[in-house]
Automatic annotation (TrEMBL):
Name of the molecule in the record: Peroxidase
TM region(s), chain numbering: none
SS bond partners: 39-120, 72-77, 126-324, 207-233
Residues bound to heme b: 200
Cofactor note as given: Binds 1 heme b (iron(II)-protoporphyrin IX) group per subunit.
Pfam families per UniProt: peroxidase (PF00141)
Originating organism: Aegilops tauschii subsp. strangulata (Goatgrass)
Family label: Belongs to the peroxidase family. Ascorbate peroxidase subfamily.
Residues with site note (Transition state stabilizer): 66
Gene Ontology MF annotations: heme binding; lactoperoxidase activity; metal ion binding
């Protein structure tokens, strides 16, 4: 009675039996508002969990945005990066060198999924949780400037192989040609490459990811940054001695366009960052993002939606996992 006055998350609980349904029909497409009838509180729940986590530790938000990229570029956006090792599959994606031990935020996804399973069991895919959580991380870390609608209706995959993390995720030592090719393989272009690289405005990196740019190796890194990094990193990082440093020395806990002004000053960590200035075309895009206020935030939102549509599973080859860390069967 008079449900129009009831807050949406309460309505979901009260109408659980009527509104929380199972898998979508085969051949369905992702769309904005996919859970409006199936589980009205879905996006609110994820945003609430992410907001609390990011307020405690901004690095978790950075990790979740990176998680979305690492998930979508391997097996498509299907939450395969969340699967734990099992006797049948002892080496899943999350144990691959690009992900372990640096990828973080898994506990935030688990927390959001646990609430969703209580409210609307078997309805919201883990792949959609990642997509929502990455969007919401950007929303909070940008001071609410990056805000966009994320289509949903993804299914979760069951294939997760460590070897594919190395095959499809571009490493920090790639040159521009290699970066462009790796993005092109996923139907992403140079614009997407430059824009998504801007996510390096937040979070931290292990020293081992950029010591190839420190003396005695040749590098065009700003000498001031070089000295700072040498004071924080061992000469030869290893698994037991591999400290982290912030990726953006200006605004390390805020998503903004400072990455691009840092890049123009040679204050970036990776070979793959510096590579964006090795072509006139990509260098121009860097300058646009650096000097046009609000431009990068809008382009980042668009690129994240595009990335979140890579190689999606359907009901025919996917499922809605009850636990994001294991397949249902």
């Amino acid at each position: 009675k008079d449900m129009g006055r009831v807050p949406i998350w309460i309505a979901c609980v009260l109408l659980l039996a009527a509104t929380c349904q199972g898998k979508g029909a085969p051949g369905h497409r992702v769309r904005v508002g996919y859970y409006n009838r199936k589980c009205p509180a879905a996006e609110i729940i994820v945003r609430s969990v992410v907001g609390k986590a990011v307020s405690r530790n901004p690095g978790l938000g950075a990790g979740i945005i990176r998680m979305a990229f690492h998930d979508c570029f391997v097996q498509g956006c299907d939450a395969s990066v969340l699967l734990d090792p099992t006797p049948a599959n002892p080496r899943p994606e999350k144990l691959g060198p690009p992900n372990f031990p640096s990828l973080r935020g898994f506990e935030v996804i688990d927390a959001a999924k646990a609430v969703l399973e209580r409210v609307c069991p078997g309805v919201v895919s883990c792949a959609d949780v990642i997509a929502f959580a990455a969007r919401d991380s950007a929303y909070f870390l940008s001071g609410y400037k990056i805000d966009y609608k994320m289509p949903a209706g993804r299914f979760d995959g069951s294939v997760s192989l460590e070897s594919e993390s190395l095959q499809f995720l571009p490493p920090p030592f790639f040159n521009l040609t290699q970066l462009v090719d790796s993005f092109k393989a996923k139907n992403m272009n140079e614009d997407d490459l430059v824009v998504l690289s801007g996510a390096h405005t937040i979070g931290v990196s292990h020293c081992s990811s950029f010591t190839d740019r420190l003396p005695a190796n040749p590098s065009d890194m700003n000498p001031g940054l070089t000295r700072l990094l040498q004071s924080k990193c061992p000469v030869s990082p290893n698994f037991t001695n591999d400290p982290t440093v912030v990726q953006d020395i200006v605004t390390p806990n805020r998503m903004d366009n400072k990455y691009y002004t840092n890049l123009l000053k040679r204050n970036v960590l990776f070979t793959s960052d510096a590579a964006l200035l090795t072509s006139g075309k990509t260098a121009l895009k860097v300058m646009e993002n650096a000097f046009k206020p609000g431009s990068w935030e809008k382009k980042f939102a668009k690129a994240m939606v595009k990335m979140a549509a890579i190689e999606l599973k359907t009901a025919a080859n996917g499922e809605i996992r009850r636990n994001c860390r294991v397949v249902n069967k």
